[in-house]
Amino acid sequence: MISYGTHEQPAGTWSDDSSLTFCLGDSLCNGYYITDIADKMKKWYEQSYWTPHGEVFDIGRTTSESIKNLIEGRHPSDTGGKQINDNGNGSLMRILPLSFYLQHVEDEEYKYQVIHDVSKITHAHPRSILACSIYVEYALLLLKGLSLQEAFNIMRNNILNFFCRKESFSLELEFFKRILIENLMELNEEEINSSGYVIDTLEASFWCLLTTNDYKSAVLKAVNLGNDTDTTAAVTGGWYILWNSANSHSMD
């Protein structure tokens, strides 16, 4: 880990990914209230809540614009970016704590609606919402103690079966075919993108997770892909931590 890079931060500094994840987890400790989640995000933006050094940095355009909408008084259901160019990874990077809230929920419609509503605070395009649904669905399966590969296989079936029936999402499934249909793990590193585009982040994270054998190797692989390293590593590492926890494995 090298200090004082692009954003002039010391080694060990967490980014907006972790800060907004902490905000969601903090809110969920008192139950699920979408307005409270939004309030925590505003507090981060305005008061540097849950930041490592009292400073907000590296905030994405869509996230910034959406939180400004919240500050102006708009409801969280009407603040997120809805355009095709609003499909950065800003909601994907913060949504993992929902897996704990939804861990024992059996109602699929409710489960996915919660994921959708939390994503929509900043990212309301169906592509971002579907990416968050894939991320949390996989996390929920890992919490059941399934192997990384078994959980991946079941996640693909669950997502395809549910969203192929949803008109607003069925056409979006095509953009996720490398994850949901093809053999992503057979791709070479040169074929994996790790940009801030939500599908790139999700693909890269699955590839890092499922082509390595331990936490350290997976996260190091994510970082070494370059580009949006903090988010790829956050998504990959988040899954691995859940899997280790569910299976009582030590962290290497």
From TrEMBL:
Its cofactor is Mg(2+). Signal peptide: none annotated. Keywords: Hydrolase, Magnesium, Metal-binding. It holds the Pfam family ADP_ribosyl_GH. Binds 2 magnesium ions per subunit. GO terms for molecular function: hydrolase activity; metal ion binding. The keyword Metal-binding applies. Belongs to the ADP-ribosylglycohydrolase family. This is ADP-ribosylglycohydrolase family protein. The lineage of its organism: Bacteria, Bacillati, Bacillota, Bacilli, Bacillales.
